[in-house]
């Protein structure tokens, strides 16, 4: 995959979101299974950030393979501190106030 192709795709998605077509664009581009996998990945990141259960418990709770949880954990280790803070604010802090 070329970098400019990826950038063009990201720009396209940003425009879809800016124009309030986020549900439509995801429904167009992702299958039901892919959307479900995306939801699961967000749940993995959230649970890992919360740190209240271990990876094996998370695997059992979500009904997924340990490799999927491990990939999420490894990916989370590679994010910048600023992005990790944004994730924590977006996934954890908003729910505390709700």
UniProtKB/TrEMBL annotation:
Compartments, as annotated in UniProt: Cytoplasm
InterPro entries: Trp_repress, Trp_repress_bac, Trp_repressor/repl_initiator, TrpR-like_sf
Keyword Cell division included in the entry's annotation: no
Tagged with keyword Transcription: yes
Keywords of the record: Cytoplasm, DNA-binding, Repressor, Transcription, Transcription regulation
Main location group: cytoplasm
A Pfam family assignment: Trp_repressor
Cross-referenced SUPFAM superfamilies: TrpR-like
Portion annotated as DNA-binding: 55-78
Residues of the signal peptide: none
Family membership noted in the UniProt record: Belongs to the TrpR family.
Free-text function comment from the UniProt entry: This protein is an aporepressor. When complexed with L-tryptophan it binds the operator region of the trp operon and prevents the initiation of transcription.
Subunit structure: Homodimer.
Record protein name field: Trp operon repressor homolog
Species of origin: Orbus sasakiae
């Amino acid at each position: 995959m070329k970098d400019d192709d990826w950038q063009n795709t990201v720009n396209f998605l940003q425009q879809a979101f800016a124009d309030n077509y986020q549900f439509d664009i995801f429904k167009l581009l992702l299958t039901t299974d892919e959307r479900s996998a995306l939801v699961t990945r967000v749940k993995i990141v959230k649970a890992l950030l919360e740190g209240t259960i271990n990876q094996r418990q998370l695997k059992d709770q979500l009904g997924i393979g340990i490799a999927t949880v491990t990939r999420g954990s490894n990916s989370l280790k590679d994010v910048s501190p600023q992005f990790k803070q944004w994730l924590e604010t977006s996934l954890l802090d908003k729910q505390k106030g709700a």
